Structure prediction request, 414 residues.
Amino acid sequence: MTDSKRRKSLAAASAVLGGVLALSACSGGDDKAGSGGKESQAQVDEAAAKKTSAARIKIMPKDGADNASINNAAKVTVADGTLSKVTMQTADGDSVPGTLSADKTSWKPSSQLERSTTYKLNASAKDKDGRVAHENGSFTTVAPANSFIGNFTPEDGSTVGVGMPVSINFDKAITDKKAVQAGISVNTTSGQEVVGHWFNGNRLDFRPKDYWKAGSTVTLKLNLDGVEGAKGVYGVQQKTITFKIGRNQVTTVDAASKTMKITRDGKTIKTIPISAGSPEHKTYQGQMVISEKYKETRMDGATVGFADGDGKGEYDIKDVPHAMRLSSSGTFIHGNYWGGSGIFGSANTSHGCVGIQDAKGAGDPNTPGAWFYNNSMVGDIVNVTNTGDKTIAPDNGLNGWNMDWSQWTAGSEA
Prediction:
């Protein structure tokens, strides 16, 4: 072999040997613990796994979610362990209190969340060997623009008259009425069938065919959380409301005889002279429900269409005593101290309200106006007859009783 060939062979062998040595140095070879070498990667991974907690934490809704429910979305659970600490805060750092289950496997906020708010959750848990696991996440609740609520009457825990409907006014127009009505139920201990009627996309009322039974209890349930009422607009309410029906009181106003008769539980308890709407300003006829009561209130004709050429009201009485609303458009039954005692029972002189003799300041309990006010409640029926005017519209106030049952049920989406 020539010297040049011999040198080339040695160089090649050296390169190969160098590569093997380099590879051996990077891989760590097959050295074992106890023989002076390092642990294998498999051994390192196995050791790390032994230190990892078996507890598996789940935060809901998922990290980064938006349009989350303000009622049931937020929740922390753990499998193969118990929760040791959960904190929830707004993006501004305000703490949200929560409740840990007795077995320490779940946590949820103690109260309803706010709309259009970002919340951050941090959770820690331990497995049976005391090893700790951590998890965190954040989400944003549904914005007002993407949600709807229903403002309802009567109030929870109230006692009302036999004519009081359940009336729900939504703050957004509902297009999927069927889905929304399916999330609402109204039941009564009297066993009466209760049906909902949509007056428009914003208002849904419920009532039985006949007046509620005296002494019964009515329950309204709103299970609207997550219900899509219109495209991209979701319900957020999850409530149960109960109210009681009081005694059965119906007042019949006869504009022709200028008297009204109060009947309670089927018996006439009082007859009172009145003054209804004048021939120029007749009072609506029909079954009307007392929706509000004011010991004193202001009545300005300009607010209900009675104004002169300068826009000033034809009347402006700042202390009308014992006033009870019968319509949204301004019909009241109220005390009257300015008309003179001679008009009651003899002349119809008002701008459309029903007036009863009363005293200025609403301080005399012996007047007919005070008696009627003190013996009436929200939800009582006032049936106005013989005025010569048209029947009040069913949606003008809480006056759906002026719609027959077939029409009422035809407006249901159940």
Observations:
- Residues 1-36 have pLDDT under 50 and may be disordered.
- The first strand starts at residue 56 and ends at 60.
